[in-house]
Protein 1
Amino acid sequence: MKKVLRVLIVEDSEDDTLLLLRQLNKGGYQTEHLRIDNRRTLKKTLLHKTWNVIITDHNMPGFDSNAVLGIIKNINLDIPVIIVSGSIGEDVAVDAMRAGAHDYIMKDNLTRLVPAIERELREAAIRRSQRAAEAAIEHLAFHDGLTGLVNRSEFERRLERAVARVKKGKTVDVLLYLDLDQFKVVNDTCGHSAGDQLLKQLSALLHARIRGRDTLARLGGDEFCVLLENCSLKQAKIIADDLRLLVNEFRFVWSNRFFSIGVSIGIVTIDKSSMSPDELLSAADLACYAAKDQGRNCIQIYKNEDAGMRRRRKEMDWANRIDIALENNHFLLYQQLIIPLNGEDSSHYEYLLRLKDKRRIVLPGTFIAAAERYQKMSAIDRWVIDTSFAYLSNMKSSSSNEKHFISINLSGQSLSDNSLFDFVQTLLSKYKLIPKSICFEITETAAIANFRTAIDFVNRIKELGCLIALDDFGCGLSSFSYLKTLDIDFLKIDGSFIRNIEKNPIDRAIVESINNIGHIAGFKTVAEYVETQKISKTLKEIGIDYAQGYAIQKPQPLAGEKVANEKKVSTV
């Protein structure tokens, strides 16, 4: 089968045109061709039809190859041009090549025509491929690879231009921050392929709904932004609610399963008094999270004077500082002594987290709320475990006290991490530690909130040989019944009952009750926040096994931690 060649022939002689077509046919081409012989027809033809190659005579009445090359250059077309002429001087041929001709062939030597065309077609294909690759690379630099929407970096550039434009003019723009509410459900139950398909479908729906002059971008994950240009806040609220309803009514189908997806939207006005682009994005993110706090699938307008917004801004700032602390090893550990009140058992230590912030030591009460909200606790807990194990291993190598053990706190997020047990087991082996030298503390509220996973973790970690303490017991709506289910070693009584135990008979009765039930269940009891020797004496009379607090020892940095002359700050 012959190859189809779309060839435009610029020639005033029909006989010469037939010779060219016969040569092409002989070379294996079936031609779709057109012969023209004037400037006007050439322009019209080039603009309305695509050609593989142009073959032009050099000399025609009122028209020559230089004119042909000039027109092609002005239109900016990449089409191989081959000059076929009966007479052309060498100087003229060289000038034609410089002007853009790809080859020139004498009419009495047409055997060169087909090889020349095939060469130029190959080179033209290579140029097209290179342009396509360059266009693809350029597109990826400014667009999200999954959805095809504008990416974060390009959106930030457009937002920066919008801020500058608004400050110079009288218009107002609006920024929308969108976060899908049930995306994780799809990802967790159906896998990332389903999640990717969901993002593609929703992106197409959202893009079709926004105005032509507006910008929809995917910032990452399931977070999107919309830049509404020349838009009032009232109109932006209407658009935002339209997008919210669009997502709310959308039904995603995967493997015969149907999913409903909601979206929370934060709104920030961009006017002459606006913040910087980074601050605008941060404010819109804050408003979006406030919408989630209202029950999700809501819209929230950013208000700088709102107390909740200010609190959330602090949490976002701390989330960033936590990432920096993890990356640069700005966390450090303190230890606090826990002593036996009956004199039979040995003392041990609880390792406590601190953060080095410039010349200050920050207590965890300042940043834990942010760590929990922004899912940083698992990473923090793993740093604590690794650092504690390494320190304990080094300490045991220089000590003969094999009875010594340490307590490490675990968050509820870590309890929900199915890979935590393997992480602990790997580090125990790495640092050659005896499992009984480690006691993991989990809070009562975390255990109740993650009861099934807590039971599973406790059972597996106990089989490994580690110890378990239930911390802050009594601070919530405690139920003694679940103590029969949890295989723990220590029951730590919340400090709120300990501080006033001498003056408040109800607190003393609660502590006595917890202590009695704990002993019947086979647990050792530990009293926290023992701040005076009188409290310690009262606890000993009640029969509490261990005491911990400032009356015993204030938290001290582990040996080797450089914290001299640093100011300790915290609200907790």
Note: The two ends are 84 Å apart (CA to CA).
Protein 2
Amino acid sequence: MLLIALALLSSWAATAQPVSVHAAVEGQEFFLGESFTFQVQVQGDNRPQLPDTSVIRDFTVKKLGGRNNSSKSVSMVNGRVTRKETRGYIFNYKLTPKRIGRLTIPPIQVVAGGKRMATRPVPIVVREAEKVSDSKLHMTVSRPSCFVGEPITLTLTWFFAQDINNVEFAVPALDLPQFDLVLEEPQIDRKKRYHRLQVGTHQLIAEQGRAQLGGKTHATLKFSVILIPTATGTFPLPKSTVVAKVLVGYRDARRSSRQSMFNDFFGSTRQAVHKKIVVPSNAVTITVKDVPAAGRPAGFAGHIGKYAISARAAPTDVSVGDPITLTVSIGGPDYLDRVELPPLHLQAELTKNFKIPEERATGKIEGKMKVFTQTVRALHADVVEIPALELPYFDTTKSTYATARSKAIPITVKGTRVVTADDAEGTGAVAPAGRALKAWGSGILHNYDELNVLRDQRHGPATWLQSPKWIALLGAPPACYFALLFGVLWFRRRHSDPLAARARQAAREFRRSTKPISLAFAEDEAGGHAALLEALRAYFGSKLGTAAGAITFRDVAARLEESGVNGDVLQRLQTLFEQCEASTFAGGAGQHIPAEELLTQSRALVDELEGALR
């Protein structure tokens, strides 16, 4: 045996693998706004550096993570053992074209095996999306003509009539260099439904509703963003698109290996039939003009739109040098986040009678106003009012400069008095020598001249029981002892049965383990389903006192029926198991439920099961 082993070792051979990089896409032709998978495949190194995708200009890029692509194999031919080892790594991205035409994914540089290499360029053909009769994407702006720095609202409304899933929006206008993008969280109405969308590299919240289109009622998804132009000119906004899978019908099919084994539990054999659609929006053009230099006020600080200003002060009865809190409210434009307090230290009428700090306070948005607070101090006792505050602005409705003014605030200012040592002692004028002593009731000379101010300060056991502090001090040790005793007894009783303890914590552990699954869905949908499936198995393993292992719906259905779980809950639980298993083991076959809705359903099911399995 030793001789044979030596012979095998002498004939052992390993193949060396050169390092190379390649680019791969799932197709060559796509519609504008349609996303596709792009891979950077590294061979010969399973720990390459992150590729540089900043050179990709004509596509929005979303990282989908990477995975190791290494393998090992051993073969023996005529007594010669050959060991083959391949190393590799795959980076996954989702690209969305920004314009139509013949585009090119440029070479992507990667450092692998200590060398810098680049992929070959990949040509892509992007076509205009075909119109869909019962679906429309409408893009509007609040003003087609505006001035530099004037916020405008871009709104997209998608009308659709069928059930949808796998929705992806492409809005190239969000990444135009001539505009600053501002994303604001909408005010949530609990009576409405909202969806969080991933639009390129941005997350937006869309409101679901209903509206008329072509005389028919359609479901709608609507979201808005704010664009602030930074340059002048005429800018045609690129068309936006939405890609989705719509339900076009059902078909009956015999059970196959790709169908769930649980379909026959309730006798369901229908399969949903989906169709991918790409819906383009209308074209929109924005003309941006610069504010004129002629007639610009000296205190103009870039406020563009139509503004109003008001002020209030407190206190209004003060002495010279006392702080006065000045509260200034500014309103007018729809977007107030970038509105700032005008420089009060440059307003001559105000600085003539008041000391104004140069630092300007940050404001706080309250409803349709932005509120600022500023401290001012009167310089002399002749001041009778805080003058009107001025806010120069450029009125875009009239294309001219204007000034908003607040109302003057009447105040009373008193002069100051020098404080002497006699004031501090409470004596007033000094008494002449030889004057009789008297009791003082103020200042640091305050004294007492009556015997009733003396207190009984004797101490002893008899006085302890009359004092709440002594009673609390004497009773604290036995109270702590009994509290600790009862706590230990409760803890021992609660943990005397480990299986029962696991069952009590099962729902809490399920909710804790499903919190990070949303991120897993975003990076890898199959991985998200696999994580949710493992969480379900762990829950039923703890709740039913069995090993989690590879628990299926059939393993728990009988136990749940015995516990009184109704058929509706069982059917929803079966659907949940089906989708997770289909995505994990069958490449996504079967019914598809959006990730967030799937997580919501799973948590609701666990809450319902908790009541039946107590």
Note: The domain at 136-288 is CATH 2.60.40 (Immunoglobulin-like).
Protein 3
Amino acid sequence: MYMSDSTITPVANRDSAFWQSIRANLALQHQTPIITPCPRDGAPLPLSFAQERLWRVEQVHPGTTAHNLCAAFRLRGLLDVVALEHSLNTVIARHEILHTCFQVIAGQPAQIIVPPPEQILSWVDLRSQLLTQSEMEIHRLAGEEARKPFDLERGPLWRFKLLHLADNDYVLVRTIHHLINDRWSDSLFLRELSAGYEAFCCDQPPALEPLPIQYADFAIFQRNNLQGERYTKQIEYWQQRLANDPPLLQLPVDFSSSTPSYQGAAAYLDFSPTLVAKLKSNFGQRAGASFFTTLLTGFLALLYRYSRQTDMVLASPVAGRYRPETRGLIGFFNNILMLRNNLDGNPSLRELLARVNDTIAAAQHHQDLPLQDLAEILRLPDAVLSRVMFALQNVPSHPERLGNIEITTVNIEESIANFDLFLSLRQLPAGKLTAIARYKTALFQANTVTTLLVEYLATLQTMLDNPEQHLDDLPPLQASQLPQQMTTDIVYVAPRTETERRIADIWQMILKVELVGIDTNFFEAGGRSLAW
């Protein structure tokens, strides 16, 4: 899953909404008791609120693969497969959630902790294939794994497949159900896998810190803690915030579709480190706003240019890990906040930033109320809940090595969209930022979403150049009308389709270049022939 930014940066105005948000999160830690282990006496273990939300969706759409999370990790070096298997076994045995299934007991869903399976890793030998064929096969097999449903009642809810491409060249494909995993967990998994692998290669036990609690302990704590006055205050806030039937956010869709579909695609756009640094320092920090707030403000300004809508509701995920006991646990902790933003009165971009800052601070202070309770109590339409998601990925970095093995992430297109439009910003090394717009293909054409990303970049640039400009004075930019310096200097249009991304991955490996976009010329990038 994806998170909003919570990085603390020194700013002059410590009464700002940003600092109020930081203090609110710290206060949440002190207001709630410590999470302690609960007895495993055979009594049914409840689902967390986040798990229950997804479990209910699974009951309405049995066999859906919309909640399958697929990742692929390139492993280059002399791999000790036995040590890798031992490390996988260790991580899975260490976290109860990784050997948990879900069954209905006495009419209620429950977590059932079972012994870990003996066979974890399957093997595919691709060494006999040509390089280009094996690269295509990575994506085909990963997509195939992502499209296989899981049996929630029996488990396991993960699959690991090791692809052997060549000597010292492997890809580990991991597919896991969202019920037991989130994006934060991905980093934890790789760190523990790396520690275990390095230890087993030296015939030593892994030096992993004991876990203070397990995921089921968190689920029990969460349900016991959110009761009485605490629950009532959360409800009252959201009832007031989302009163009077929040409108559906208007988007520049190409098609009208009344048939539910999760079929999706993604468009990518990279932002230069120079732009990122200026957005953080020149605009956000001077106003006492987080980077997440700055990026969201730009997105709302862009949506206003499309729709002239002044009442906008969109979803944004929070990590749900403000308790220190949860930060080392693999599991599904995310909650989704519905951020209602007021753009009325033709505010300036700087004024809009202040409004968004206040909205985020208040929402984060009331982040415990599960989305399903909010939706049921306020009777929010599914169309509003699943319209638009916005997130800044802010999760711990994963290790770059597995012992003496180099680890890199292989971009895998999941072809799934849970929201009509989901704009996610991913922070990269060296100050870079990638915007990823995942969309439902039943609503948008690829060119429309690519244009939206380019116009989003232009809007952020406008925020830097003229923060006092008012919304109604923003020019109606199109991608073809962008200034020439912007086209040649912040803009890199990444591959937009699965086929384009497959080709880009191959070119990156062969040509040893960092970025391959849709306008990259093979020969200008260093290629001598297509048979290289």
Note: The longest strand covers residues 68-76.
